[in-house]
Amino acid sequence: MKKSIFIAMLMLLVGAFTPTTTHTEPVLPDIKIPNIDCVAEAVYFEARGEPLEGWAAVAEVVHNRAVAEGIDYCQVINKSKTITTEEGTHTVYQFSYHMYPKNIKNKKLYDQIYRYVSLHLYKVIALNHRILDKNVKHYDGKDRTPYWAKSMTVDKTIGGHTFYKEVTKNG
Comparing C-alpha atoms, which of 54, 52, 74, 53 is closest to residue 63? Predict the structure, then answer.
């Protein structure tokens, strides 16, 4: 008798916590983000030790440059120029990790970065949800002041990076 009362009470209790309505995932517009692997690679090498906001900021810089220049993400990441100095001719990349051997050692972290920047850039493209101004196209270590930063204003400092905004005629 006690056992059947216990089972009946347990069934009532379980029933009280069983959802009576079903929830569906929100339907999001189908936006394809080509070359997101290039952005994830850049974030991995440039900002993997930064907080999530730092990952998003580096991804936004790549996005802002691509939109402004009318090129894809991989073209932004791989952009370089050749300079000649007293030491000779050198190729200089806009993203410093190109100057060193690239080897993704932590695949799990890379996969997390890939998913995170994919979602973040989706929000930038579909919802205009940003953490940086759309004119932010440069960043450097927060303890440095590069020569090119003199003509820009600081938008934000996140983790170990300072993000610079190009000054426009409208402010």
Answer: 74
